[in-house]
Here is the input.
Amino acid sequence: MTDFKKLIASFAECDCGVQHRCDIKDIRVGSGLVREVGRILQENDFPQKLLLVADRNTIRAAEGIVESLQGFEVEQYIYEDLRVATFDDVRLVESYFDRVDGVLAVGTGSIHDPCRMACARQKKPLALFGTAPSMDGFASYNAPLVDGNFKTSPPAKCPEIIIADTKILAESPKALKSAGFGDMVSKYVALIDWQVSHLVTGEHYCEKVAGLTRYATDNLMRMADKITLSDEEAAGAVFESLLMTGIAMAFTQTSRPASGTEHIMAHYWECLELLEGKIPNYHGEDVGVTTLINLKFYNELIKKESIRTHKEINDWDEILSVYGPLAEEVRKINSPDTITDEIDPEKLVELWPEIVKIVQSVPSYEECLAAMKKAGCKTTIEEVGKGSEFVAKSFLYHPYMRRRLSLRRLANMID
Here is the structure.
């Protein structure tokens, strides 16, 4: 197992000049830990009055966790099945804070995210027991939540304690394990976008933090053929890799090290589906496919030996019409100016050879596609239930959902 305390400490004095903070006190990943949760919480002086939040699936997977909490006063809130976390869920968790002093989230993603924001807002300790290696937000300081059908990433907190039982991770549904792999492959696009933005605009970029994400992703790519096996070692490795990218996000206080245009495009899909009353796919499923779409586009784009550029031209009436009820939020994000306004088109021409090298520094579309197939991931728009017209429109308009520069957005300035 990775020595996470040593890893976190190694970033204390970074040459990038930014103080990298991660408030995790303890991380335990091992076999049979579900029955040790209470003891681990006690060792870390976790409050005795706690709220356990789970859904029927995660509490069933974590059989024995309640019995391990001897000596704690435990209140429970068990969802039937929480797939989409909203601000209402944040308020629900907060409603218990008049009688509990800490939260134990059992499950990842939608269970964990509202707990992270509620505990951040009310300054309460948080512990996570992960039941599947399906996403990477365990340690980040932002929580993806839906607010009026618009998916945002407001400030949250990372847990003080993270625990995972490799037996439970290994037996988690194959679809969740594959989704976790898809979420990890997306880091290659995220790293391209972060580095390109740094090159073009001077946005802060830390080579050491980016290197942590790259190490975790490369390590997992080598295990693609083991992802769906009921193998404790493989499941633990996936969880640790996802945890590393979460720590990388904690270090920068942004999602930059792990989220680029591919995540924005997946959020676009989710928001538009929510407007239609649809429950989105597992996060990593959609992100895996949007990663392939954008990586293929980047690989084609850099075949240009030279480029001609212009200022970005935006038809805002058309852009906002696509977003429908979400248009006002998109307008706010792009007002009073838009993120490309200050970029000199000639600078892109000058920097093009370096941008090409950045894209070439990560595995190609073909390599990522092959690895995802080995890992049992969904790789086509048909497999994630998306129509070609919808996907084409999302490719054009998703960058306006976030005030974040990407190579996909810069491509609007290239002839």
